[in-house]
Every structure is written in structure tokens, then in C-alpha cells.
Amino acid sequence: MSRVSRDPGGRGCDDRRVADTSGRTYAGQTADARRHQRRARLLDAAIDALAGNEWRTLTVDRLCAAAGLNKRYFYENFASLDEVATAVVDAIAEEVRTATMSAIAAAVAAPLEDQAAAAVLALVHTLVDDPRRGRILLGGVASSPVLHEHRASVMRGLTAVLVGHARTIHDVELEKDALAKVAPAFIVGGTADAILAYLDGRADISVSDLVASLTTLWLITGNGAAEVARTRN
To answer: What is the pTM of this model?
Structure first.
């Protein structure tokens, strides 16, 4: 697990008092800026713990030690370890959503095939360039029941984004067809497993091959589902 330097302003590890909320500066930084940095350090330490399958045995003390912070700074930002973990998942999911939708927006005038390729490229690189993020978001690590349910909720949210985009590009209300219940879950679940297979070494292929294969499967599934839905409706 990575270690970062200890916060010079810390006090006893059992002090849960909230840190300075004024606008005063210290070492050229405002209180808000320092709080943001401390939160980021806690999140990064949590990412290490989650990706290292250490979450079930983790304590607040150990997480704070890994972040180089005293315990009171944990409670400045979070009420529990589960709250830290859900914040990590939310942050990774937002990275995925932003990267994917930005890639699609940049390719909006291009053919559908190019839009799909851009989206998959952004998605894959967001999750494999830092393998910790891919394993955490896609369920490749042990976690608590709370985090498991939260991750499932987040994935449903990402699926909804995919359905909304598909409805726009295919000009068909897929949600009226039974395929709307299956195709998005098929794409998202299959993509997640394929990325985990790559990260775990089960899929011995290059990143470019992974992107190309997923793009092809997205197009086959998406176009096929839209065509069937259009015919039925």
C-alpha cells in the first residue's frame, strides 16, 4: 500500500474535532484547500486498501496511518469506512461517465461506429490505466455488503446513461421493448467482465484488441436490439 507524508498539523489520533473551517491561510493554502487535500489522501489510501483486498480487515486507524493523517481528519470528511468506500466508487464512476460522454460528444458528427469506438476507448483507458479503479468499480475486489449494493446502484446508473444515449442515436424507445431489460445489462455486464479478464490476465490480449473487440460487440448488440425493437413497435 502506498504511503504519503504525515500531516504536520495533526493532533492525537482520537481527537474527532472538526478542523478549522475559517478562511485563514496556512503555508499559502486556505482551510478549504487543505481539507480537500486531506480528503483526497484518504480516498487514495482507501483505493489502495480496496484494490489490495484489505477492506474487510481495515480500521479507521490503519486508513489514517496509510494516508499520513490523524484520526480527527477522517471524521472531518466521513462518518464510517463504508462512506469512504462509496465515495471512492462514486468518484471512479464519475470519471468513467465524464470521459465516456466527452468522447461521444467530441465524435458526435462522426458515424455511429466511430462514436462507439471513442466511447469504448475512453471507458477502457479510464479503468485499465490505473487497474485499481477498474477492479474497484467492476467488482473485482472484496468489499462490504453496503459497498456491494452501492456499486450495483452505480452500475445501474451507468446503464441508464447508456440506454439514454442509445435511444437518441437509434431514434427508438427501447424501454418499450423487453430487450431494454436485457441488452443494456448484457453490454455493461459483459464489458465489465471483459475488462476484469484483461486486468486479471485471463484475456491475454492487447489494450487495442480489447477496445476493438468491445466496440464490435457493442455495435452488434446495440444495433441488433434497436432493429428488433423497431420491428416490434
So the answer is: 0.80
